[in-house]
User: What shape does this take?
Amino acid sequence: MKPAKQQSFWQSALFKIGVLLLVLAACAWLGLTITTAREQALTPGEKNLGVAVLGMIWGLPMLAFGATGVCLLLVHSVVFLYRRFRPS
Assistant: This one.
């Protein structure tokens, strides 16, 4: 039996999904930065609960997307290296 042709590191679906999740995390960080700056500018010098709410709305998905993206990239790297260097 011939061994199946191995995909390159960059063509794998796990790699693409991991990168997509990291891009979503970066977009959530950008949204968090923009919306909290605007909300804080509306009431300068005061504590604003709207900033805390925006932090929860944007921050939790940002952490989830980022952590999941990094974990997928780590799993992809381990699987890729295992397939490349496993004994025949």
In short: The chain has a mean pLDDT of 88. Residues 16-85 form one domain. Residues 49-85 form the longest helix (37 residues).
